[in-house]
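Predict the structure of Ig-like domain-containing protein.
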Amino acid sequence: MQLSSDRTTDVGPFYFKIEIPQHKSFTFSQNTMTIDVLRTPEPPTMSVEVLGKVVASCTVFHSCPTSPPRFYWSHSGIKKTRSKRLNKWMWTTVSILTFVLLSSDFDQSLNCTVMYRGKKTAHLIQL
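Done. Here is the predicted structure for Ig-like domain-containing protein.
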């Protein structure tokens, strides 16, 4: 699908149209769609559990499974990422960071930064 612009004012409705040179074109006018264009992505949600080790998860929703968001953590550790399809158009991706809590970690924030296609970022700081 190709859109001529991606301004926040572009809300639709939109129609699919098939154009084949030297043939008839067809517009699917009965099946409309709308698109929400966000200037900045929604921030991720984060949860943290401390039971002998820290297990932090950072979760976002997105609509492009072929280009899932990338996660960056402010702390090192074991990182796992998984995606799940929620419905026909929406996915959720979660990054899980596991690390052993050290005394040097006290009073330090834990940051999760998410980079989407097009280099748009969103971040969350857990104190």
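Residues 64 and 103 are 40 Å apart (CA to CA).
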